[in-house]
Amino acid sequence: MDIETLIKERRSVSLFEDKPVSIDEVKAMLKTSAWVPNHKMTQPWRFTIITGETKAQLAHMAGEFMSRGKTGEEKDRAYNKAHAAFSQVPMHVMVFMEESHDLKRRQEDYASTSLIIHNLSLIGWEKGIGMIWKTGPLTDTEPFRQLIGIQPGEKFVGMIQLGYPKKVPRAMPRIDLDERITELN
Ligand SMILES: Cc1cc2nc3c(=O)[nH]c(=O)nc-3n(C[C@H](O)[C@H](O)[C@H](O)COP(=O)(O)O)c2cc1C
Q1: CA torsion 68→147→157→177, rounded to 10°?
Q2: How many CA atoms lie within 13 A of 113 on its CB side?
Q3: 94 and 36 co-located in one domain
Q4: Which CATH number is 164's domain given?
């Protein structure tokens, strides 16, 4: 696939086939993805790959979180929906970065770490592996942060849910970029 098609056709995927993704393959994809531009070469990122029992704990945690404050059947429905949504994800990749005390450095580090995530999604897309970058409210909770092992001084950048796509969503419309491009001669 040529790079322009790859960039345009990649979609965020959140429904996956019941088919495992190779951890070794994802590690190799991450290694390639990390070849990003990075001011001062701080390379502040780290990744945690979650499958198996930890993934089951995460699904339970998502169920508990989404059903909080509800009772009876409504609680069960909310729990089951979130639990099922997380359980069908073959793999989660948590992305962290060391958080510099310097605002500019922090922003530049976040930019570079974001590039890795997008590289990962493009490399994945070419291999038929889909993913979505998630930062929903569950990821701000203390139990979540404990489960994924966030360290003092680290910023949680995103939860990448990854697998072979069951359904590829339609592209969301993009603005006409001509309206946002200025030429200064
Ligand atoms: C920083 C970041 C956080 C995101 N968090 C979420 C999220 O929490 N939940 C979600 O459904 N999608 C999330 N997304 C995915 C976007 O919704 C998605 O990229 C957008 O709808 C465009 O769709 P596309 O990626 O298929 O082009 C996030 C994307 C980024 C870049």
Answers
A1: -50
A2: 26
A3: yes
A4: 3.40.109.10
Q: How many domains does the chain have?
A: 2
pLDDT in tens, 99-126: 999 999 999 999 999 999 999 999 999 9
pLDDT tens digits for range 27-73: 999 999 999 999 999 999 999 999 999 999 999 999 999 999 999 99
Ligand 1 atom with least separation from CA of 11:
26
**Ligand 1 within 6 A of CB of 159:** no
Prediction ipTM score: 0.98
Q: How far apart are CA 72 and CA 128, in angstroms?
A: 41
Report the distance separating Cα 98 and Cα 59, nearest Å: 26
Q: Are residues 59 and 94 in the same domain?
A: no
Tokens, residue 49: 């790959």
Residues of the domain holding 66: 52-89
| Residues 128, 95 within the same domain | yes
CB distance 134 to ligand 1 below 6 Å:
yes
Minimal-distance CA residue to ligand 1 atom 12: 134
In a domain, 118, yes or no: yes
